[in-house]
Amino acid sequence: MAAWAERLAGVRGVLLDISGVLYDSGSGGGTAIAGSVEAVARLKRSPLKVRFCTNESQKSRRELVGLLQRLGFDISEEEVTAPAPATCQILKERGLRPHLLVHDGVRSEFDDINMSNPNCVVIADAGESFSYENMNRAFQVLMELENPVLISLGKGRYYKETSGLMLDVGGYMKALEYACGIEAEVVGKPSPEFFKSALQAIGVEAHQAIMIGDDIVGDVGGAQQCGMRALQVRTGKFRPGDEHHPKVKADGYVNNLAEAVDLLLQHTDK
Amino acid sequence: MAARRALKAVLVDLNGTLHIEDAAVPGAQEALKRLRAASVMVRFVTNTTKESKQDLLERLKKLEFDISEDEIFTSLTAARNLVEQKQVRPMLLVDDRALPDFTGVQTDDPNAVVIGLAPEHFHYQLLNQAFRIIERSVYLMSITRSSYVMDKLEGRLHRLLLDGAPLIAIHKARYYKKKDGLALGPGPFVTALEYATDTKAIVVGKPEKTFFLEALRDTGYAPEEAVMIGDDCRDDVGGAQNTGMLGILVKTGKYRTADEEKINPPPYLTCESFPHAVDHILQHLL
């Protein structure tokens, strides 16, 4: 593999995944990953532009940012690109009135959305709310629509909590797709529009940006599809097999965010 | 059909073919007696995820059908056979009423999941538990596979894990009709686990080829010597014909006009009901 200096040449902006890179979620909120609090702080002191790009859809941005601040991170709501606000924008633009299959924690993001007489279903990482009854209700809403629209906030397979691996929204999205014979629209990584909106927010072109994430397909593969570079961290849901993934090869693998930031500051701050 | 041989075995679907819910198809008991008087073996095959053999038998007895337990082959039997053949220890994500069909199966420290229609079990915690079991098995299988290449591990251990069956689905129906509307079947939840673990479920029910072959196995006859009678054009008739059997579609149960046009090649025969199918067999296939 080429030297780091070559691989990181011309990077002006950094997109950071949150869960599995900054912290591991879990009971009591979760725990910061060793070295990540300092790494974010160093990155923000550097000339590099920084944007947080998450598929978190259980919590509102406010809740998520509050949690990260309590863990010691320097982060504000305005710096976070998340799927719920992006979805609200789409709903308004297209006059869609959603039936929500989401976690209570993210409901507040939809406060100013009209939800009477629904003409689409929005599904997010609902956690415990993924009951048979709730899935069935979403299924019935879709089957009654002439043109069923299913919007999914991300399509992750699973994520890691301190207690172990947890089913993410992707499986449930696939379940509804299979039941209704439809294809969902995904808002969030790895959809290109989502990465682009994060890049727009910091005014950086894809070829000048690098994504740092723990998901080889959603973070690394998705970012590369957009013309960005991408590093995978060996934290969060990382598995050794990821480094030999049949379809996706990261531009580099690093032990954690701290090591990624070391390399970035060493090779881009010229 | 050059390979066709004299008819020796008849497979018969239950619900929709012999009876519809709690009512027998008119003349079906009589027709079954006539069929039994001929020199053919009869097996009863059904896709069920919640009725044990015992439940099925009781209903059939109430309707005065002369059938014994060892003549019934269900998708639950097929799942159990596969569990035993692959020597896996399954978490049973099935309706509690189906559990008697798995009596004696080892379920401690599970390394596989058997999934059927079990709405009361399809909540996040239990599905997540199933997900973790499958994920771990798939992961262990992948490590064993690569270390085999490197270390040339003992072939037997390697095969055992490689052939593992981490996810066994009774069937993959998308949804079914209830009195108060449509309800999700097991298929969507199987699909969710497949996606989350990046692995394919082994489906054991109709219309899978192995289902029909397993149902025939203890008769000792080949598919070319067998006929299947059922009301589901794709799952009964299409599935059986794919294995080399003849398929007879009856216009009872879930049959809807023009169903016979749904498969190619078309059913060997489409007729009014089970007694008509038996008449045809007695007159033309023996």
Automatic annotation (TrEMBL), chain A:
<dbReference type="GO" id="GO:0016607">
    <property type="term" value="C:nuclear speck"/>
</dbReference>
<dbReference type="InterPro" id="IPR036412">
    <property type="entry name" value="HAD-like_sf"/>
</dbReference>
<keyword id="KW-0539">Nucleus</keyword>
<dbReference type="InterPro" id="IPR006355">
    <property type="entry name" value="LHPP/HDHD2"/>
</dbReference>
<comment type="similarity">
    <text>Belongs to the HAD-like hydrolase superfamily.</text>
</comment>
<keyword id="KW-0378">Hydrolase</keyword>
<keyword id="KW-0460">Magnesium</keyword>
<comment type="function">
    <text>Phosphatase that hydrolyzes imidodiphosphate, 3-phosphohistidine and 6-phospholysine. Has broad substrate specificity and can also hydrolyze inorganic diphosphate, but with lower efficiency.</text>
</comment>
<dbReference type="Pfam" id="PF13344">
    <property type="entry name" value="Hydrolase_6"/>
</dbReference>
<dbReference type="InterPro" id="IPR023214">
    <property type="entry name" value="HAD_sf"/>
</dbReference>
<dbReference type="GO" id="GO:0016791">
    <property type="term" value="F:phosphatase activity"/>
</dbReference>
<dbReference type="GO" id="GO:0006796">
    <property type="term" value="P:phosphate-containing compound metabolic process"/>
</dbReference>
<dbReference type="GO" id="GO:0046872">
    <property type="term" value="F:metal ion binding"/>
</dbReference>
<dbReference type="GO" id="GO:0005829">
    <property type="term" value="C:cytosol"/>
</dbReference>
<keyword id="KW-0479">Metal-binding</keyword>
<dbReference type="GO" id="GO:0004427">
    <property type="term" value="F:inorganic diphosphate phosphatase activity"/>
</dbReference>
<dbReference type="Pfam" id="PF13242">
    <property type="entry name" value="Hydrolase_like"/>
</dbReference>
<dbReference type="GO" id="GO:0042803">
    <property type="term" value="F:protein homodimerization activity"/>
</dbReference>
<keyword id="KW-0963">Cytoplasm</keyword>
<dbReference type="InterPro" id="IPR006357">
    <property type="entry name" value="HAD-SF_hydro_IIA"/>
</dbReference>
<protein>
    <recommendedName>
        <fullName>Phospholysine phosphohistidine inorganic pyrophosphate phosphatase</fullName>
        <ecNumber>3.6.1.1</ecNumber>
    </recommendedName>
</protein>
From TrEMBL, chain B:
<comment type="similarity">
    <text>Belongs to the HAD-like hydrolase superfamily.</text>
</comment>
<dbReference type="InterPro" id="IPR036412">
    <property type="entry name" value="HAD-like_sf"/>
</dbReference>
<dbReference type="InterPro" id="IPR006355">
    <property type="entry name" value="LHPP/HDHD2"/>
</dbReference>
<dbReference type="Pfam" id="PF13344">
    <property type="entry name" value="Hydrolase_6"/>
</dbReference>
<keyword id="KW-0479">Metal-binding</keyword>
<protein>
    <recommendedName>
        <fullName>Haloacid dehalogenase-like hydrolase domain-containing protein 2</fullName>
    </recommendedName>
</protein>
<dbReference type="InterPro" id="IPR023214">
    <property type="entry name" value="HAD_sf"/>
</dbReference>
<keyword id="KW-0460">Magnesium</keyword>
<dbReference type="Pfam" id="PF13242">
    <property type="entry name" value="Hydrolase_like"/>
</dbReference>
<dbReference type="InterPro" id="IPR006357">
    <property type="entry name" value="HAD-SF_hydro_IIA"/>
</dbReference>
